[in-house]
């Protein structure tokens, strides 16, 4: 879980900016860049900046409600799979690399992961290589990766490429000249992919882009400059006709909207994820050497509906969105405990102890956590485990995957196979684990970056 203990604040900030705001370069691992972005987010969330907010208000349009909001499928949990046996490792695939992409991307029958100077595409059933492609650029090991339902993988470095499962390039689009002073080449933020097939991202050439994923042609391109640290603006989430970067943009045209404002904080102070009934906004605060999370539930127009009990002794971080828009949240600053809240703000479960950090919710309502045990200051000696919980936050089983504990989020296929990638001392390792969940839950936010394809957009899985 996301705790506020001495010594792991940097990890908290990295998780916060990586999962919701998006890395400024899509790298999620470039320490110098990530730390600067984290410091900026921390400073923004500690106190309102009247001058910044006034400037933002003046440069954006009026407050508007998000349109084309996806309908809640009103699904119910499915039965667990039968005759799949006990949870166990099916296969492991080691790949040569010194760096890995922070998330494993699953599209159809293929897995995508960026390792070192290569985009690896694997057959998800066997782990065998389906295709690979050299990744160019200074920050190649951190290339942002996303996939569509047709199993095309997209990544960004100094150009945007669309790659087929066999490793061949479907199209490539070069970006403009780099404007950042202390990096050599143009790099991008994380990529977003809308249900309409449009890729959104910013780059250190100073532009925010909307490209058609079918051919790389431009829908619109908006000059936005660089952020206050001199890097590409982060691109966080999308829902309906709106995407979020430094402010909210209309997805069709690139026109800007007025920022969300809560308790005197606005704009990029907040991380936001979507549910079918509204938005969950959160930021971290400062009390001495502790940094608790603050949580809020908003309607589709950005109006505050209710807040979590935000006091000096509490901390609230939304982890996953379940059926009926129920929220799984980390709600304790000092202990590993979790809660479930209804979309109307009623506490349904918790506090209950929980091990590790939730990464995926199965269609049978099973929560899958990634846990590190042992000496966490020594990644090489810490052990990685998958821990399964019911939605009532009761432990079901755990599976120790051994050393090392440097892992990505999980991807969960319809046949119950859970995938995770971790960094070893001499490469990366992709691991396939059999579970009994019949795929991801068809909820608004059942895994990191919204779905197995990491589209970062609220919509169909």
Summary?
The protein is mainly beta and 461 residues long. The chain has helices at residues 9-21, 31-46, 50-59, and strands at residues 88-95, 105-107, 110-115, 118-123, 129-134, 144-147, 153-156, 159-163, 169-174, 192-193, 198-202, 207-212, 218-223, 237-239, 242-244, 248-250, 256-257, 261-262, 265-266, 271-274, 279-284, 293-298, 304-307, 317-321, 327-330, 337-341, 347-353, 357-361, 367-373, 383-389, 395-403, 411-412, 417-424, 427-434, 457-458.
Q: Overview of this structure, please?
A:
The protein has helices at 9-21, 31-46, 50-59; strands at residues 88-95, 105-107, 110-115, 118-123, 129-134, 144-147, 153-156, 159-163, 169-174, 192-193, 198-202, 207-212, 218-223, 237-239, 242-244, 248-250, 256-257, 261-262, 265-266, 271-274, 279-284, 293-298, 304-307, 317-321, 327-330, 337-341, 347-353, 357-361, 367-373, 383-389, 395-403, 411-412, 417-424, 427-434, 457-458. It is mainly beta and 461 residues long. The chain has one domain (9-458): Methylamine Dehydrogenase, Chain H, CATH 2.130.10.10. The strands form 9 sheets. A 5-stranded mixed sheet has the order 17-16-15-14-35, with no helix packed on it. β22 and β23 form a beta hairpin. The two termini are 25 Å apart. Mean pLDDT is 82; it is low at 1-60.
């Amino acid at each position: 879980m996301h705790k506020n203990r001495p010594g792991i604040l940097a990890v908290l900030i990295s998780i916060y900016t990586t999962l919701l705001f998006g890395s400024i370069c899509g790298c999620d691992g470039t320490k110098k860049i990530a730390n600067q972005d984290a410091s900026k987010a921390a400073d923004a969330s500690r106190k309102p900046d009247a001058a910044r907010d006034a400037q933002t208000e003046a440069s954006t349009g009026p407050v508007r409600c998000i349109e084309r909001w996806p309908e809640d499928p009103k699904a119910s949990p499915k039965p667990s799979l039968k005759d799949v046996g006990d949870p166990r490792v099916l296969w492991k695939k080691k790949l040569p690399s010194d760096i890995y992409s922070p998330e494993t991307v699953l599209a159809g029958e293929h897995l995508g992961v960026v390792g070192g100077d290569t985009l690896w595409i694997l057959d998800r059933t066997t782990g065998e290589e389906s295709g690979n492609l050299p990744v160019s650029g200074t920050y190649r090991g951190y290339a942002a990766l996303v996939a569509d339902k047709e199993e095309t993988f997209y990544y960004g470095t100094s150009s945007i490429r669309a790659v087929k499962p066999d490793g061949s390039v479907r199209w490539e689009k070069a970006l403009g000249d780099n404007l950042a002073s202390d990096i050599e080449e143009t790099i991008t933020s994380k990529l977003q992919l809308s249900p309409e097939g449009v890729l959104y991202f910013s780059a250190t050439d100073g532009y925010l882009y909307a490209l058609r994923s079918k051919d790389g042609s431009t829908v619109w391109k908006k000059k936005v400059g660089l952020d206050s640290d001199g890097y590409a603006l982060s691109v966080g989430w999308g829902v309906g006709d709106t995407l979020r970067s430094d402010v909210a943009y209309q997805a069709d045209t690139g026109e800007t909207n007025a920022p969300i404002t809560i308790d005197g904080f606005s704009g990029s102070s907040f991380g936001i994820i979507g549910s079918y009934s509204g938005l969950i906004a959160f930021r971290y605060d400062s009390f001495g050497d502790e940094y608790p999370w603050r949580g809020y539930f908003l309607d589709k127009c950005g109006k505050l509906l209710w807040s979590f009990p935000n006091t000096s002794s509490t901390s609230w971080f939304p982890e996953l969105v379940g059926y009926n828009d129920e929220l799984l949240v980390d709600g304790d600053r000092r202990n590993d405990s979790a809660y479930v809240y209804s979309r109307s703000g009623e506490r349904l479960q918790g506090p209950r102890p929980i091990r590790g950090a939730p990464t995926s919710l199965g269609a049978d309502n099973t929560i899958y956590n990634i846990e590190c045990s042992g000496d966490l200051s020594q990644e090489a000696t810490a052990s990685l485990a998958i821990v399964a919980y019911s939605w009532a936050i009761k432990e079901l089983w755990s599976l120790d995957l051994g050393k090392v504990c440097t892992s990505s989020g999980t991807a969960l296929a319809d046949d119950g196979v859970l995938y995770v990638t971790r960094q070893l001392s001499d490469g990366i390792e992709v691991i396939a684990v059999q579970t009994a969940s019949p795929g991801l839950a068809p909820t608004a936010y059942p895994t990191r970056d919204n779905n197995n394809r990491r589209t970062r957009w609220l919509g169909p899985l």
